[in-house]
Design brief:
Helices cover about 35% and strands about 15% of the residues. The protein is of the alpha/beta class. It is globular and about 55 Å long. Its EC number is 3.5.1.115.
Length: about 270
Amino acid sequence: MQRKILTVHAHPDDEVSRGGATIAHYTAQGVQAVLVTCTDGAAGEILNPDFGALPQGRTLAAQRAEELAASARALGYSTVHSLGFADSGFDGTAGGTDAFVKASTDAAAERLAALIEKEKPQVIVGYGTNHARDPHPDHIRANQVLTRCVELLGERDGSRVPDVFHVAFSRRRHRVLHEACGTAGVPSPYAPGLREPDTSFDDAEINTVISLSETAIERRLSALRCHKTQIAANSGWFALSASELYQAFPYDEYIRVAAPPGGRPCDDLFVASS
């Protein structure tokens, strides 16, 4: 049976920063990956000062869709779906009537459920409930919609609900990568995160850790470079090479929803279907 993973992300570029190397890891093994992006990212800004202005007549939504497609190819996604909502913005006031935060939870969940029923993945990756470090309303909404979607799927046929994982971020990861930046003598983009309280991180909840190859990490960096409006080539997120990142922390971390209590962390998202 063809193994398939479906990921649910709020905006273009989230597919890279939240588990992008995991997708590269699995697609290199022949796993089929499907990306669902909830919003168009149009409420964002051009954060890369080297990008300049958009060409005349081109919208930010169109530009970010092009960047998303290139990023998805770099990671190995075979299919990209849009859930069809507008970016709500950092304060939740953008996007008009089509804003993701204004959508009915049930209506949005039904839309996502239809895609899941069509694609039939064994694994779904989405966002958890800890938004202390990243309280973007669309990220919070993505968790709410996925949670409701899984409930709807269970009501229809509980035996066919995919295994669900939430992307996690540990203080340990931030600390190790911050120290690696210090060793390499480059500015650390992880320093601000380390000033956050322990409750902002997921260390205690992490129960799944995926080991990554250097190649998977390099593909994640390549995908991040596709988002040219969002990140400059000299950004601190590129301060460490794939090799240095691999040597420091070659893992992605997850919380498996409804995992049996106790036991060692799992090392495979397909644990329930293997």
